[in-house]
Write a structure and sequence with these properties.
mainly alpha; about 0% strand; elongated
Length: about 160
């Protein structure tokens, strides 16, 4: 996009999903199958480096749930992200976009009450991102986020 916004990528195949996760999890790094397999092992899973390389090459398209779980461990995301027609793809992408905006300073902080160990729910992340987008749109057009004209700072009181 022209304004620097990140468009949600099309993530339909296992290869597309894994490539996306490599790019977002290890930005600017070249991750070998061996390094990733060791990371999965450190986190309690099992995945051979050659199998991971075959996934990246598009040679593996329908792995077992155990392999999907290993990918989830390695990338630190819900393993269902890698399933076909996954419902969690949008949630993971929204979370990664949120973290990227946090890293760049576009979002300076978020306070949540009553959060559990899982952190912010995906719906809240999407909502926060939508508020940020609305605020940006308002700044660039000179209008409020709801599309209305900005109110003047002080209006004179009518005289007696």
């Amino acid at each position: 996009m022209d304004n620097g916004e990140e468009r949600t990528p099309e993530l339909k195949t296992l290869q597309q999903k894994v490539e996306y996760m490599v790019e977002k999890t290890f930005p600017g790094q070249k991750i070998s199958g061996r390094v990733f397999a060791n990371l999965v092992k450190e986190r309690g899973g099992s995945l051979s480096h050659s199998y991971f390389s075959n996934i990246l090459a598009g040679k593996v398209t329908h792995p077992s749930e155990d392999i999907l779980r290993a990918l989830g461990l390695g990338f630190g995301v819900d393993w269902r992200f890698f399933k076909e027609e996954s419902e969690v793809v949008d949630d993971v992408v929204a979370g990664l976009q949120f973290l990227a905006k946090r890293r760049t300073g576009e979002i300076s902080g978020v306070a949540g009450r009553g959060l559990d160990d899982n952190g912010l729910p995906p719906e809240l992340l999407k909502f926060a991102l939508s508020l940020l987008e609305d605020a940006k749109a308002g700044k660039s057009t000179g209008k409020n986020a709801d599309g209305g004209e900005p109110e003047s700072e002080a209006e004179p009181e009518p005289g007696p």
